[in-house]
Design goal:
globular; seven-stranded mixed sheet; 24 strands; 14-stranded mixed sheet; single chain; 2 domains; Immunoglobulin-like; mainly beta
Length: about 400
């Protein structure tokens, strides 16, 4: 019996070690696989990347509260605009700023006085990229001072899937390339490009296609009577030659109110430009080297467009400087008006050359109340800290 049992016992041990050997080999192969390499012929699982985020600080408040906006995960160096949203739709943009090279966003705005945005409860904030294809949202709890505000939860909104590429059989003919249109940016340091020929001052902005546009998104002056509706937006394009400094401006404004002579046009819908021609010596008070222009579109009916010039005095005041040779033209559009104007260099005593830099601020006035002849409701500028008679608070304008 012993002779008959041993071969069976050995056969079992050989089989046992054979199976164990195969298991060890399989485990060794799995452990030796490089990270990210397929195991057993299966592709590695894919981890979806998170979209952009939006955070507000503080989490809530009331009219006049400064709201800090921060975010991450945005495309690098892209203009991001922040709006409020409710059942009635979207506000005008409350803040606009470029993300940094790492895709981080850091901007803010003052919560508006409008009754629409002061209903107690959460209000949705939405940030959108310049092409509006990427968005993120957060909430702000509206409440009177002393009320506790919950911490908002950042949300991420999906980017729409790109359309399928047409096949060769259905692909349309390649169109003629259109001029490159650069999205406008919000910056306090703007540039005017040297023009091969001066634009025709007629309110047609086609000549400005391809140049960098600039936004004036920051509220720097507002009256308590303002209802908080952000229904105005201005995009500026700048150019120059040996004769003059040129501006093309597209203004979005649903109600045009201008009832003043040019000297007081800033009480109605209009543009304001401050220029400090001696930037090396600009200070906290104006001098004879500092100028302000009020550009009126008129009422687009029987009150014509016009420009009015103010100049600093040795006593540090901005006062009337009539006799400007600035030219203005305006065209009504479906969303507001387009305006072009020129300021001769002789108007501001400047000999222009490339890389010449002036102090400057570009601002737009909004008034939606007919009959309010001497009330300046809302002023937005490209410089968040702009003060109308303090040259050191203005940005810069450089000739390129």
């Amino acid at each position: 019996m012993e002779h008959n049992i041993r071969p069976a016992f050995y056969t079992f041990r050989i089989l046992h070690f054979s199976i164990l050997g195969w298991v060890i080999l399989l485990l060794a192969g799995a452990c030796s696989a490089q990270p990210g390499q397929p195991i057993g012929g299966r592709p590695p699982s894919q981890v979806e990347q998170a979209g952009p985020t939006l955070n507000v600080n503080p989490a809530g408040g009331w009219a006049g509260q400064y709201v800090e906006i921060r975010g991450s995960g945005w495309p690098a160096n892209q203009l991001i605009m922040v709006y409020l949203e409710d059942e009635a739709g979207r506000s005008g943009f409350m803040a606009a700023s470029n993300s940094d090279a790492n895709g981080n966003l850091n901007t803010g705005f003052t919560w508006p006085l409008s009754e629409r945005w002061l209903q107690p409860g959460p209000v949705r904030l939405v940030a959108r990229g310049s092409n509006e294809s990427i968005t993120a949202g957060a909430t702000f709890q509206v409440g009177r001072p002393g009320e506790e505000a919950p911490t908002p939860i950042p949300t991420v909104e999906e980017t729409p899937e790109p359309e399928a590429t047409p096949t060769e059989e259905t692909a349309p003919p390649t169109p003629t390339p259109a001029p490159v249109v650069q999205p406008p940016i919000a910056t306090e340091n703007v540039e005017a490009m040297r023009l091969a020929s001066p634009p025709v001052i007629d309110g047609n902005l086609e000549e400005w296609t391809g140049l960098q546009g600039y936004l004036s998104p920051f509220i720097v002056e507002q009256r308590p009577e303002w209802d908080g509706s952000m229904d105005v937006e201005a995009v500026w394009w700048l150019g120059w030659d040996d004769d003059a400094l040129y501006f093309g401006v597209a203004v979005t404004d649903d109600i045009i109110v201008q009832e003043n002579i040019p000297q007081f046009a800033y009480f109605g819908d209009s543009l304001e430009i401050e220029l400090a021609t001696d930037i090396a010596n600009r200070g906290d008070v104006v001098t004879r080297r500092d100028f302000q222009y009020i550009i009126s579109p008129g009422n687009l009916n029987d009150l014509p467009p016009a420009a009015y010039r103010f100049q600093g005095t040795p006593e540090g005041r901005l006062t009337d400087a009539p006799g400007t040779l600035a030219r203005v033209a305006v065209r009504r559009t479906e969303s507001g008006y387009n305006l072009e104007f020129s300021i001769p260099w002789s108007d501001i005593n400047v000999a222009p050359h490339s890389d010449f830099t002036m102090g400057a601020a570009l601002s737009v006035n909004d008034n939606d109340v007919p009959g309010s002849v001497r009330i300046q409701y809302l002023l937005l500028s490209n410089v968040p800290g702009r003060q109308w008679s303090t040259p050191s608070s203005w940005g810069t304008l450089t000739l390129r």
